[in-house]
Each structure stands twice: as structure tokens, then as C-alpha cells.
Write a structure and sequence with these properties.
globular, six-stranded antiparallel beta sheet, alpha/beta, about 450 residues, single chain, GMP Synthetase, Chain A, domain 3
Length: about 450
């Protein structure tokens, strides 16, 4: 094995031995099985002529072959482009942007190998040349593309994996919630590999199925988003399964409404709630929550610096990206600080409260409204099961506050607008009270269970 590869990780995988590694629909596997699978994929790279430094689009989700191929590509110093999507147009777009020379498509037991339609560039991208000069593997992650063409971010994969080397070996069972091509999902995977913990892979990210897997495999840590956790509560699936193994529920990707956290604490009084934070550009940070009842968190990571500028969180990380393949570095300062776009407030003793995205702020006649604040009030209403707050243009005030609401069982949907205004008036400033209230059967969220603030109109409730 070349000295430049993350040899510590491969040594640790071998040391994990027959500890359980993966529980998925296709079956279970041990770490010993993973070591054998990596050797199989190593041979496949040679058979398909995948040279070090080559860009490989890996189309698949969490499985023994997919994880093994990811590790074999890291060892072979390749540029890995994971893609959980099965949409051909999206695969073609990612292959073209990254300049992929190979496409490995998961088929269940293995992969089919092909060449993408777009020919790779004659010369490697400067970022890829930089990685090759260092003898390192690379990782290309794509943004969700909700605001246009997705941004392709280049990570130094060796450096990213190296940030997990200090994790101590443990025997935990983690459910992997976010997708194979998401920095949060890869964080769960790399944490499991480094610690020797078991991963549980849901066939679908649906509350009853997730709860059934927690009960069946005695999951100890459940990472999720506030949006999904609210769906879990609404489904009442948590009352139909034995979730007594859960020790920690982590939440991230969006702010947690305080009223939702209070409901979760009532449902799971013995579980510790931990807020996580990270970005695709800088990686996942070590965080500390003030308590399970608090939305305050502290960034405590030796690989990370942070500062707050005009209410916005800026980060500078040892694991941040080399750059974008298809986008200007305008979000980065000349001295390497990443402007996250996340608004925060300082609460003393180093703790911060995440308020929301700068781009989501609603401007009502010059007054700023944070959707999360309004949502937290709405979720405290017994008549509302779920909600989403966003802004719409207004000729008078620039924007108005709008809300999609899902009525709770038995609530009077026809009276919802009046109920919302009556409940909000004593609790919010007048300009924050929703002007437009739309009753819906479900709010709009993306495939990563994160609320979409300017959603397409979903079907109205009957």
C-alpha cells in the first residue's frame, strides 16, 4: 500500500475484525467482509484500467460494494464523485462537470463499468493536478442545486479522512440518514469506519421504516433533520416500535424550532439531543450542545476556526475544499474564510444559536423576519401539525410573510387563518404575523428532508 494513502484507516478496518459493519436490505456484513470487498474492488480498478488520478463517478448508495469501491479509489489516489441519484440527466451533468473518465454504476452485487458520454479533458483540472502532486485522493461533492446549476466542490479526500483518525474505537450502531453523496452522510460513514461502529441503511427514509430498523438493530445513534423528526412525531411511528436502544439523536442541516425540540424531549425523555453543524465546503464540525433542551451549540473543533461578521458565521477549516470546479470562489475571502450564509447570535460562554439562512430572511418594509422564529411559534399551536414559512413579493412592503400549515387531526382547516393570526399576535411583532396562510396536506421539503423556503405549491388539503 502506498505510504500516501490513509493507511491508518485500512489498518483499523482490519483490526475491527468480525465486528458488524453494515445492515442493509441486501443483508449484513462484517468489517472482515469489508476488507475482502475492498480487495475485490482494488482488482476491479486494475481490470478496468483505472489509473491513479483518474476521475470516477460512483453511482450508488450505501452498500458493501459501494463503500468498498470508495475506499479502493481512495487507496488508488483517484478523484471520487459519489452520486446517489439514478436520474440519467443528473449523472451525465456530474460526469461532464467533473470530467469523469469512468462511470461505475451499482447493480446490487457489484458494478457495471462504462465511459461517460462526455470525454474527459485532455489535461487534468488544476485542483486534480494539485492532489496528484501531493499523492492524495480527491472527493467531488455537488450542492443540491436548489438555486440553479449545482456547484461542484473538490475536497482532499486524504485530508478529510485524516480528520477522523483520532476517533476512539467504540461499538455503536448508527442509522445513516443523509445520502451517500452528502457531507453529512459521509460523516456518518467515516465515523463508523474509524470507530468500528455498525451502520444501518434504510431502504427508504420514512418514519415507520426508520423506527422499525431502530428497533430491529438496536440503533444507538439516530442522525436526522428537524423536518424529519417532526414527521416522525406526526406519524406516531415512535409509539409502535421499541426505541429504547436510542441514546443520542443528532439533528442538523437546518435550525431546530424550540417548540419542536420541546415536543421531542417529551417523546424521548431518556435520549440526549445533540445539534450538529457543518457545510459541504468546510466539513462537519465537532459541536457541543448546551443541553438536550437547548438549541445553543458551541463549535469545539481543533481543525476549525470561526468568527461572526455582521451576524453571519464565517468558518476556516483544515478540511475545507480546494475550490469549485464550476463556480467562482466569491463565498471565500482572500485569507480563506468561508462565508457560510448562516445567521447566528452569540449567547455567551462561546455558545451560538443558529437563526437561519441569510437568503431566507423575509424583508417586510425594511424589517427582517426569520422564518424559523415564526415556525417555532406556529408549531406551538395545538391545531398545527407542521408548517413552513417563507416570503412572497408585495407591491406595498416588498415582501409579506406566508405560511403553509398542515392541520392537526380534528383541527378546523377552514378557520386556520383566523386561528393563526389570533395565536401569533400576542407572541410576534405585527410585521412577523403571517399574512397569507395556505392549508396543505404536507409542507415542501427536499430529498434531504430540509425545508424549501420558496416551494412549489403542494396540493391543498381537502
Amino acid at each position: 500500500m502506498d505510504a500516501s494513502t490513509p493507511s491508518w484507516l485500512f489498518a483499523r478496518l482490519t483490526a475491527h475484525g468480525t465486528k458488524p459493519f453494515l445492515h442493509a436490505a441486501a443483508g449484513s456484513a462484517t468489517y472482515a467482509d469489508l476488507v475482502v470487498a475492498v480487495a475485490t474492488q482494488r482488482a476491479a480498478l486494475a481490470a478496468h484500467g483505472v489509473a491513479p488520478g483518474g476521475v470516477v463517478l460512483l453511482a450508488g448508495d450505501y452498500s458493501l460494494p459501494s463503500v468498498a469501491l470508495l475506499l479502493a479509489l481512495a487507496e488508488n489516489r483517484n478523484i471520487v464523485v459519489p452520486a446517489a441519484t439514478v436520474v440519467e440527466a443528473e449523472l451525465a451533468q456530474r460526469a461532464e462537470i467533473a470530467g469523469a473518465a469512468h462511470l461505475a454504476r451499482a447493480t446490487g452485487a457489484g458494478f457495471t463499468w462504462s465511459r461517460p458520454a462526455a470525454a474527459p479533458a485532455a489535461e487534468p483540472h488544476p485542483f486534480f493536478a494539485q492532489l496528484a502532486a501531493a499523492g492524495h485522493a480527491g472527493l467531488v461533492l455537488f450542492s443540491s442545486g436548489s438555486t440553479g446549476r449545482p456547484k461542484a466542490m473538490v475536497h482532499d479526500l486524504d485530508r478529510l479522512l485524516g480528520s477522523y483518525e483520532d476517533r476512539r474505537v467504540r461499538s455503536l450502531t448508527l442509522l445513516v440518514f443523509l445520502l451517500f453523496d452528502h457531507i453529512g452522510g459521509l460523516n456518518t460513514l467515516f465515523t463508523a469506519l474509524a470507530t468500528g461502529s455498525a451502520l444501518v441503511v434504510p431502504a427508504q427514509r420514512e418514519p415507520d421504516h426508520v423506527c422499525a430498523l431502530v428497533a430491529r438493530h438496536r440503533v444507538t445513534i439516530l442522525p436526522a433533520s428537524p423536518t424529519f423528526l417532526n414527521l416522525l412525531l406526526l406519524s406516531e411511528a415512535w409509539t409502535h416500535h421499541d426505541l429504547s436502544s436510542l441514546r443520542i439523536i443528532t439533528y442538523g442541516t437546518e435550525p431546530m424550532p424550540e417548540s419542536l425540540l420541546a415536543r421531542l424531549r417529551t417523546a424521548f425523555p431518556a435520549v440526549k439531543f445533540l445539534q450538529t453543524f457543518g457545510t459541504s465546503e468546510t466539513g462537519i464540525s465537532h459541536t457541543t450542545s448546551k443541553s438536550s433542551d437547548s438549541t445553543l451549540l458551541k463549535l469545539e473543533d481543533p481543525n476549525l476556526e470561526h468568527r461572526i461578521v455582521d451576524g453571519e458565521l464565517w468558518l476556516r477549516s483544515r478540511t475545507q475544499i480546494l475550490g469549485y470546479l464550476n463556480h467562482a470562489m466569491s463565498a471565500f475571502t482572500a485569507d480563506g474564510w468561508f462565508r457560510t450564509g448562516d445567521l447566528v447570535e452569540e449567547a455567551g460562554d462561546g455558545f451560538l444559536r443558529l437563526l437561519g439562512r441569510r437568503n431566507d430572511v423575509i424583508n417586510v418594509g425594511g424589517e427582517k423576519v426569520l422564518p424559523g422564529e415564526v415556525e417555532s411559534v406556529l408549531l406551538a399551536m395545538p391545531e398545527i401539525a407542521d408548517c413552513l414559512v417563507y416570503g412572497e413579493k408585495s407591491p406595498l412592503t416588498g415582501q409579506i410573510v406566508c405560511a403553509q400549515v398542515v392541520p392537526a387531526p380534528g383541527a378546523d382547516a377552514a378557520a386556520m387563518r383566523g386561528l393563526v393570526r389570533a395565536f401569533c399576535r400576542p407572541r410576534l411583532a405585527a410585521y412577523k404575523v403571517p399574512v397569507k396562510v395556505q392549508v396543505v396536506t404536507q409542507t415542501t421539503c427536499g430529498d434531504r428532508f430540509k425545508k424549501m423556503r420558496q416551494p412549489p405549491v403542494p396540493p391543498a388539503a381537502p
